[in-house]
Amino acid sequence: MTATGVRRIGLAMLVQESNSWSARQTELGDFQTLRTGAAARELDVADEYHGAAGVVRAAGHEGVPLLRAWAMSGGPLTADAAATLERMLLDAIRAAGRLDGLYLGLHGALAADGIGDVDGHLLAAVRDLLGPEIPVAVSLDLHANLTRRMVRQADIVVGYHTYPHIDQVRTGAAAARLLIEQLTTGVRLRTYLAKRPMLVPAEAQSTGDGPIADLRRLADAVTSGGIRDVSIFPVQPWLDVGELGFAVTAVAPADHPTAQHRCDDLAETAWDRRHDFDVELYEPRAAIERARTLDGLVVLSESADSPTAGATGDSPAMVDALLRHGAGLRSLVTVADPAAVAACHDAGPGTRLSLDVGAGIDRRFHRPVRLTGEVRRLGAEPVELDGPFMKGTRYDMGRFAVVDTGLGPAVLLTEQPAPTFDLAPWRHAGLDPREADIVVVRSAHMYTQAYAPIARAALTLDLPGASTPRLDTLAFTNAPRPLYPLDS
């Protein structure tokens, strides 16, 4: 600490959510954001790092930019990618010189070849480097899998309070604020943890209504009497690792008399309500017929193949269903298919062509579908997200092509999965969801904030995939058992 009381606080973020059933691993090149030093500070994205940096600056302390790394959800990291990212983080901390504290934004569900708990592994490496006295504050996604190692290595652990995630900035700010409190008051904070052996489908994790919303209200009610934060982690359920399960954390002074009891009570309440997390699913044909009866836009969620849950986004199931059953309905659907995109670019705009699309990456659940139509638009520029989640992020979906079937469906083909939880990718490709009868999104719940102002209804589809809500259909081998709903 300087003579003026100004603290030097390291700022770092390393975020990726891993899906154990994804058809492809995540490599270093998949990180669309990867910046160190001053370059990390210059990125203008509404994320946790941004929130933490703002609090440090407003409090008159020195924020030391270290690392800012983000990748879309996908398969576990390759061993080389995990080792490189760890080295980048530790090298940045060493190069920063003396630090009085560290803020670290993590997802909490990051896995790699040979390491099920990468977040805990990174925190242990950071703690070894900094020593036991330098406080570390961590922000996590609501879908984090909390492990004992994570809470043992970090003083402060704070998670998102919302799903869809619209409080990323607030969460980073909250973690940094508690870190500064510990630095300036000398009151040592710790994170208390309670877990229960259960998984919750992502479609049932809304903090706006339902059981999780009830739990969130209870958590807010007990955030008092010295308890600084209570976070609920219903966990990312497509993660086959040790210690997998529902978690509740509380941040309070190290000798707090009731913080652990509060965690245990909330976790037990969640366990008692485990049967309330059922999800209503619709077969594709039934969903389309339901859309015909409604006046206005209907969103169909193919959550079983959600890129934000680590799936590959190349299922052609809804292209097939809309071609078979969606005649006369204006519908929008995406498929990640680099070969099909290349064929469209080779053919050029205005060309009518037939090609097989989909199931080029993940062949376990679907087969390619024959698509015939006119190439209406081609492009290659990254899209800037402008919805409530990750606003300002420039996302590269590679080259893209819009194929209009003339029968109702317009298909947006992309080289990388389109982030359809946001409206921007559609507009970027010259398509307007407001003029459609059906929009197919590849998202379990993240899409709801962006589409709520324009959609009449939203239905979740009953389809197989790497991010299916039918969790009992997945072959867990590493997760602790028994585990609800895998075991009744």
From TrEMBL:
Residues 8-291 form the Microcystin LR degradation protein MlrC N-terminal domain. Residues 300-477 form the Microcystin LR degradation protein MlrC C-terminal domain. It comes from the Bacteria. This is Microcystin degradation protein MlrC.
